[in-house]
Amino acid sequence: MSRQGLKTMDQAQTVNKELYEFKNKRVSIMNKLMPVLLLLCASVSILTTFGIVVTLITETYHFFKVIPIFDFLFGTKWSPLIPPKSFGVLPLLSGTLLITVIACLVAIPLGLASAIYLSEYAPKRVRKIIKPILEVLAGVPTIVYGYFALSLITPMIQSVFGSAGVFNALSAGIVVGIMIIPMVSSLSEDAMSAVPRSLRDGAYALGATRFEVALKIVVPAAFSGIVASAVLAFSRAIGETMIVTLAAGSTPNMTINPLDSIQTMTAYIVQVSLGDTPHGSIEYGSIFAVGMTLFVITFLLNIFAQYIARKFREEY
Amino acid sequence: MEALININKLNLFYGDFHALKDVSLTIPEKAITAFIGPSGCGKSTLLRTLNRMNDMIPGTRIEGGIAIGGTEIYSDEVDVETLRKKVGMVFQQPNPFPKSIYDNVAYGPRLHGITSKKELDEIVETSLKSAVLWDEVKDHLKRSAFGLSGGQQQRLCIARALAVNPNILLMDEATSALDPISTLKIEELAQELKDKYTIVMVTHNMHQAARVSNQTVFFLNGEVIEYSDTEKLFSNPSDQRTEDYISGRFG
Amino acid sequence: MNIFQDANRKQIAGRRRTDWLLHMLFVIATSIGVLALCALIIDILIDGIVRLQPDLFNNFPSRKADGSGMKSALVGTIYMLLIMAPISFIFGVGAAIYLEEYAKKGRLTRLIQLNISTLAGVPSIVYGILGLALFVRLLALDRSLIAGALTMTLLVLPIIIVAAQEAIRAVPRSRRDASFALGATKWQTVSRSVMPSALPGVLTGVILAMSRAIGETAPLVMIGALTYVAFLPDGLRDSFTVIPIQVYNWLSKPQIEFKELAASGIIVLLVLLLLMNFSAILLRNKYQKNV
Asked: Per residue in B171-183, pLDDT tens?
């Protein structure tokens, strides 16, 4: 636009050219510099991922030079500190899985039921109060949950099951479950609220009652979102650290008895880093190998959840 | 034609808003009655009281009476689920469920307790035939209803409403989201259906009311201004406001 | 003619009963979450209220429970916040501005965006591992305040970026057009027209991210925030502790007195969180009125 404008002005001799000086150096430098600086900021996130991956791979590689990868992945005994040392990750995996399954057994039914209640049943006013309260559950620091598990849930479990120890998977699993309720409920509710009003109207107009609309129309229509929320919650439970460190114990144990003490991958990492492990030792390396396992699992689960949520969003 | 629906001094409030004012009407059986009027005049609100869809909007209050076939629909004698079974509804936007064509039509009968496969098959077929959709979909009943065109989806919704064997069919601007050809098909369908069903339609399109309906009701600001045979209302309206509206001076 | 004659009232009564039962079930399930939160708060208040005395704030931790305090932890938490807040604000908001205002909708942008949402799902302890390898060892920052703050910055960045992006996206197009139409450059438009409108939303996100950070324990355990610190950090390279670590330390001791201390430490932590969330809500409400 400016070029043509300028031509006309050249023809008109009386025009004061200074008025039409379209370049402003100071402004133009900022305008060119800022995008570069901002891109640098944005690349920090890429660098973080890069850093995580490189760190884990390098140290894990060193670890696998000493401990064969096969022994690590399929070994059934985890005894890194007490000789004879053994680095089979399965007990840590099974411990993690036990906690996660218990947590999901708590969180998925409760979270889904809460989501249905909030989205289909609750009057607006009730919903406005309950929703933020449930979301507070997600904001409570995990150390607080750890305290809650030790001081309230574990004694309750012990009074019901006499055989339960001070550290047991059940207590930690239940509390992790409570922590992830809002993940399930709020993401599922979002998915259910996204189901168009017109579908509900269609069902009501055929004489459906509320539960029929909720369970036969809304839940199926929102199913992918609900599954995605459950997968994310599952992944969150796997990565949870402080609750399991405090309440589940530190006994690598291949058991499915929820009253036993177990050790999760995360709790092991904490245990080693609390001690004074020298850099370069095999224990130090094991943190990274376990961390790598943890990272890969949660990463795949998160990608999976995003995939489900995206893939099935439109296509009912 | 016998009166099927009797509306007697009906007042409806959304909170403080007086949406329907002293509406009294009789709607004849096995005919098409059209509600017309500018948007916000209360025509859709009245339609939604006929199957009590307004119940679900918090803060709605109703005074006066609506009787269908002599039964007061807001009384304890009537379950709202049964009412809606007897008074089917088709909406502005086609709203098939995210299910197969078959399951869409079978949804209502299943709700009301029909489980036998044979019976359901029969209902699905007759309903789709009544909605003049059968020939287009009979070979892929298991396909998702979302694969149908807009007009087909709307006819599927009509089939879905017919599947629970209603007496009355409410059509809430059922063609406003459709192209002219699909609209024509639905209008023809309505003409056929009126032999068996009582049809009440809300339309923003005066020409449609003139083309399709037997009776026309003109609403303005929550009041019934004029109610008569369609032909008379459009050719010789008795109220100045009706004339202004149908001649396009407002609305 | 009564069209309701053939109504199957029994079947409908049954369906309504199911509806009522399920309704109750959903209410109960929802209240379990709420009740758990109440139980947690009451439990902590009962245990911790006795130790909530001046000693707790004035004293350093000691081997004896009586007179033991969390001065170093409280100060450590505040120092960490003071270091983190500006760094994460600059990088987080910078990244958000880039993604919303500058980035072309291409593969790189999609990659960055996908990467951010993936990072938000990485367990916090993995950030601890990264911090340990990168800041503590590679950059040889040791188990210092700055190493901890940088680790936590990486942890909260995705949260801040996403929140800031939402706030920037909420600024109406018309405001940008108005600025461009007056002859402003892109950066002038962003800095003087878009950002002032988005700022309250951005700040809300930053505060919420900070409140996430002060509750985090695992990454700091990893990078070796000490569990026993009887001094205040003096510089960026000093070792430090924070409230959750102090609570963890007290919780690992068998004596009941230390459990009470842990509970009172938690009360302090929760009050801090409450204050931060409250200010975030105030900000948000003000913001909603203005737009």
From this structure: 999 999 999 999 9
Are A206 and B84 an interchain contact pair (Cβ–Cβ within 8 Å)? yes
**Any bridge partners for residue B62, and if so which?**
B12
Find chain C residues with C-beta within 8 A of B69's C-beta.
1-4
What is the C-alpha to C-alpha distance for residues A222 and A224, in angstroms, rounded to an integer?
A: 6
CB C204, CB C170: distance < 8 Å:
no
- Alpha carbon distances (Å) from B49 to A146, A192, B18, B112: 54, 26, 14, 22
CATH of B3-246, one of 3.40.190.10, 3.40.47.10, 3.90.79.10, 3.40.50.300: 3.40.50.300
Determine whether the interchain pair B69/C15 forms a contact, defined as Cβ–Cβ distance below 8 Å. Answer: no
CA distance B213 to B43: 15
Q: Both tokens of residue B139? A: 């070979």
- Dihedral sign from CA coordinates of B152, B157, B158, B164: positive
Burial A141-168 (b: 16+ CB within 10 A, else e): bbbbbbbbbbbbbbeebbeeeeebeebb
Considering only CB atoms, C25 lies closest to which of A37, A113, A139, namely A113
Q: Are C151 and C220 in contact (CB under 8 A)?
A: yes
pLDDT for A310 equals: 80
Q: Which residues in chain C touch residue A217, judged by CB atoms under 8 angstroms apart?
A: none
Q: Which of residues 214-243 of B touch C (CB under 8 A)?
A: none
Fold of the A78-311 domain: MetI-like fold (1.10.3720)
C281 Cα distance to chain centroid: 14
DSSP state of B194: T
Per DSSP, B70 falls in state T
Residues C203, C210: Cα–Cα separation, whole Å: 10
Do residue C217 and residue A28 have CB atoms under 8 angstroms apart? no
Residue B201's H or E segment, with its range, is strand B198-202
Residues in chain C with CB shorter than 8 Å from the CB of B109 are: none
Collapsing DSSP to helix, strand or coil, A204 comes out as helix
Question: Taking CA atoms, what residue in C is nearest to B168?
Answer: C3
3-state secondary structure of B228: strand
Peptide bond into A109 cis (omega under 30): no
**CA–CA distance from A89 to each of A53, A86, A105, A208, A273 (Å)?**
20, 9, 24, 52, 17
Domain boundaries, given as residue ranges, for chain B: 3-246
SS3 B9: strand
Band of pLDDT at residue A315, cut at 50, 70 and 90: very low
pLDDT level of residue C224 (50, 70, 90 thresholds):
confident
B113: contact with A, CB 8 A cutoff? no
CA C231 to chain CA centroid, Å, is 27
Say whether A135 sits in a helix, a strand or coil. helix
pTM value?
0.89
Edge-first strand order for the sheet with B32-36 is B87-90, B168-172, B198-202, B32-36, B215-220, B223-229
Predicted pLDDT at A1: 43
User: What is the enclosing helix (H) or strand (E) of B31?
Assistant: none
Average pLDDT over residues C150-177: 93
Q: For the segment B76-135, what is each residue's pLDDT rounded down to a tens digit?
A: 888 999 999 999 999 999 999 999 999 999 999 999 999 999 999 999 999 999 999 999
Would the pLDDT of B44 be above 80?
yes
pLDDT tens digits for range B214-226: 999 999 999 999 9
Which residue in B4, B82, B112 has the most chain C C-beta atoms within 10 A of its own C-beta, making it the best mutation to test that interface? Answer: B82
Show residues of chain B in contact with A206, CB under 8 Å.
84-85, 88, 107-108, 111, 160-161, 164
At B10 the pLDDT is 95
What was the ipTM of the complex prediction?
0.91
